[in-house]
User: Fold this.
Amino acid sequence: MNNLDRLDRRILNLMQNDFPLTTQPYLDMARKLDISEEEVLTRIQAMKQRGIIRRTGAILDSRKMGFYSTLCACRVKEEQIDKVAAIINAQKGVTHNYVRDHYYNIWFTLTAPSQDEARKIIKNVEQIAGVKILIMPAIKTYKIKVSLNMGENNED
Amino acid sequence: MKTRDINREIIRFVQGDIPVESRPFASLAERLNLSEKEIVERIRDLRDQGVIRRFAAILRHYNAGFKVNAMVAWKVAVADADRVGTIMAGFDEVSHCYLREVPAEFGYNLFSMIHARSTEQINTLLEELAFRTGISDYMIIKSIRELKKVSMEYV
Assistant:
């Protein structure tokens, strides 16, 4: 499995679920895993280089930061996808954007300092790209927790 | 520097990628003229206030072996959404679950994001979710191509 050995997978699970918020987090991780801090750092560095770890840091609550966010979708002709995607991607608050297998084939998320600001951005994209955008903000959040279970107990 | 400005600097630092070194907060502490302990305490405060939802590593799903992801939209009566959302949130493979305001003509209002190692695993999970919630009207909105994926820069 991507040549991740059991220790790598234990490190990944720990970093995803129980990252120590201390002045020397990697030392604390090392103690928990019963290895040296050097080994923790080397392995994390390697997994970043291999593109397994995207980043380590805070996941902020957009609402508590005073921001508005929404899911958006639009229907675009196949041959226009790249052109429209470039217009959408150029917006600073667009964090995720995917071509999807659906009647609406482009789906993206937009985060903006206010609802008004978001509306302005959407209207602007609609005008430049010549598309109609569906706006689907969350009313209730039941879960936001991306944690991929790396299966550290598997022997493979 | 005022507390607000210090927190702003801290958020600017932690919204990105902290350095992989023994004392990752040392450079920030020096710049803000605080101790590393004070920095960590402030990060913890922000977490306790819920401004920081979590402090963790974020993996690239695909490279970590989770080759398939599906956005699944379920048609749920708004009055029933809390029950359904709570059941779905209990599954490890469900990373996000929201009730959304959607145009009436679309109608699928409860969104769940699922990460799995294979399409078979997704299908099995969907059957289980449908069985456990009693909701059978759903659509899988699979991603074909990633166009953009970044972390939000708030400050």
